[in-house]
């Protein structure tokens, strides 16, 4: 099992009932009393119950931490709590509108967990918070002077519960995940002298590049990727040249994780929401590609060729692509690609502006649970997660400790509506906020646009200096000068389009 604390200098701050005797067990051994330092601070909270605080010097690496008579424990540096086990139920709370004022208690609302959870204060730096839950206990929220207790049954299918200026999402598995943490994968563990090279949706997006993009990359032609994006064929072709691929997860009506960039696919009946189709129906819709410059929308064309890779004919404004007969499920990708293929699994979650989701999409909990279960039940790969949705990122982070989690960030100055980006969420809209969010909540890194990396290098360098794994998308293999600049900045990974420009290994 991974160490909770890898550093011998780790410190915990613990609040406990003053009438109780506290006992700390590190790796199942009782901690020496001299390492438990009381600051003799007594708090009167929750119906006049008294509490004291102590500071604990861990003094060693530990994989287990047990406390008796405790209320909660914080890492003094990160404020992360260690009062739960991975896979246990929990809730994530976030506010949409922060309360501001000169007094600390007025700057933000407090989140309380039953009578024994000390207050967690929302700060101006981030508006997402995590609290552990125990079965049968109802959380109590206090925002300003208003208090709200969640009294209805926990419904895993509910997107969010809303109350005034804040909302919250419960997290509880139907079955407990059983990940082999002895073989925990870390992006840092891949010891290579260059950034990781990953293929965007396989060998690259099938979008048509504009004339401006051609000038941007200093090419005398418009680059075209002739391999269908998000297909097993593309993933296998990419692995002949690079380290791994990036792919997008969507759930079908029967809750099967499938691979597609958008929440909908075009059909002769019109655009169909993937979550309104069964996996079988989704797979039979022909693999297509975009016909609009710079956009991700798809267009249905002729029937698929039965016994060979699909060669899709297009009119004079388009071009041919080669792909598979069927669209893949995530399980098929895991089982039909080389186990050495690194997979960046992007969890797509629909934003308010999404028009391609039938009725209501599944809850974040359901999307992530089905994705993790698929990974658990199929051939193992080196995997890391990424997502634009901050709540999904925290669920992924606190639900398992095997696979790294990266925050996807648009950067700055990009105001196009995107179906999977909440354009009202400040964390998503500026890479500086993304770096602060990732560091605050212990995510492994941030992924943003190559253009942002090159125009705001100081933010990227700051992220690297904070120990974050910084990735970018949008690089072409022919952009040698840009690749060199990103490498010198300390970028951990580059997500390429036009992967076929790279010679096979």
UniProtKB/TrEMBL annotation:
A Pfam match? GDPD
Does this UniProt record's set of keywords contain Cytoplasm?
A: no
What residue stretches are annotated with the GP-PDE domain?
210-505
A Gene Ontology BP annotation from the UniProt entry: glycerophospholipid catabolic process
Going by the entry's taxonomy, the superkingdom of the source organism is recorded as Eukaryota
Q: Which keywords does the record carry?
A: Hydrolase
- Asked if the keyword Hydrolase belongs to this entry, the reply reads yes
Question: What InterPro entries does its record include?
Answer: GDPD, GP_PDE_dom, PLC-like_Pdiesterase_TIM-brl
Q: Which GO terms describe its molecular function?
A: phosphoric diester hydrolase activity
* Official protein name in the record: Glycerophosphoryl diester phosphodiesterase family protein
Record the organism: Hexamita inflata
């Amino acid at each position: 099992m991974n160490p909770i604390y890898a550093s011998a200098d780790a410190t915990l701050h613990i609040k406990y009932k003053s009438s109780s005797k506290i006992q700390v067990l590190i790796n199942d051994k009782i901690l020496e009393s001299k390492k438990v330092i009381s600051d003799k601070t007594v708090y009167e909270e929750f119906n006049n119950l008294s509490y004291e605080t102590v500071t604990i010097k861990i003094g060693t690496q530990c994989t287990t931490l047990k406390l008796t008579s405790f209320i909660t424990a914080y890492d003094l540096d990160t404020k992360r709590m260690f009062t739960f086990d991975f896979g246990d139920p929990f809730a994530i709370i976030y506010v949409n509108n922060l309360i501001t004022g000169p007094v600390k208690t007025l700057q933000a609302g407090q989140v309380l967990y039953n009578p024994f959870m000390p207050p967690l204060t929302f700060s101006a730096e981030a508006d997402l918070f995590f609290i552990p839950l125990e079965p049968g206990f109802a959380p109590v929220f206090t925002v300003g002077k208003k208090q709200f207790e969640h009294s209805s049954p926990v419904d895993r299918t509910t997107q969010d519960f809303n109350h005034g200026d804040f909302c919250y999402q419960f997290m509880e598995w139907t079955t407990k995940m059983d990940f082999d943490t002895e073989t925990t994968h870390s992006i840092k563990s891949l010891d290579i002298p260059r950034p990781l090279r990953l293929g965007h949706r396989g060998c690259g997006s099938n979008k048509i590049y504009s004339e401006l993009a051609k000038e941007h990359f200093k090419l005398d032609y418009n680059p075209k990727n002739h391999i269908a994006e998000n297909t097993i064929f593309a993933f296998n072709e990419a692995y002949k040249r690079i380290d791994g691929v990036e792919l997008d997860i969507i759930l079908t009506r029967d809750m099967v994780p499938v691979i597609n960039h958008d929440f909908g696919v075009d059909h002769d009946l019109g655009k169909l929401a993937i979550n309104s189709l069964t996996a079988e129906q989704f797979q039979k819709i022909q693999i297509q590609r975009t016909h609009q410059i710079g956009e991700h929308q798809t267009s249905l064309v002729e029937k698929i060729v039965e016994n060979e890779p699909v060669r899709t004919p297009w009119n004079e404004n388009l071009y041919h692509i080669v792909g598979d007969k069927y669209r893949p499920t995530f399980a098929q990708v895991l089982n039909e690609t080389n186990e050495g293929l690194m997979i960046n699994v992007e969890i797509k979650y629909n934003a308010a502006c999404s028009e391609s989701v039938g009725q209501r999409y599944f809850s974040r909990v359901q999307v992530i649970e089905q994705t993790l279960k698929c990974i658990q039940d199929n051939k193992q790969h080196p995997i890391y997660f990424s997502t634009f949705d901050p709540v999904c990122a925290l669920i992924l982070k606190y639900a398992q400790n095997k696979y790294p989690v990266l925050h996807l960030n648009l950067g700055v100055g990009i105001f196009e509506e995107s179906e999977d980006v909440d354009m009202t969420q400040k964390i998503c809209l500026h890479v500086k906020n993304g770096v602060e969010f990732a560091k605050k909540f212990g995510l492994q890194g941030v992924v943003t646009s190559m253009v942002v990396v090159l125009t705001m290098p100081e933010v990227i360098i700051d992220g690297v200096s904070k120990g974050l794994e910084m990735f970018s998308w949008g690089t072409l293999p022919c952009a040698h000068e840009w690749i060199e600049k990103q490498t010198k900045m300390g970028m951990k990974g580059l997500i390429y389009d036009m992967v076929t420009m790279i010679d096979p290994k």
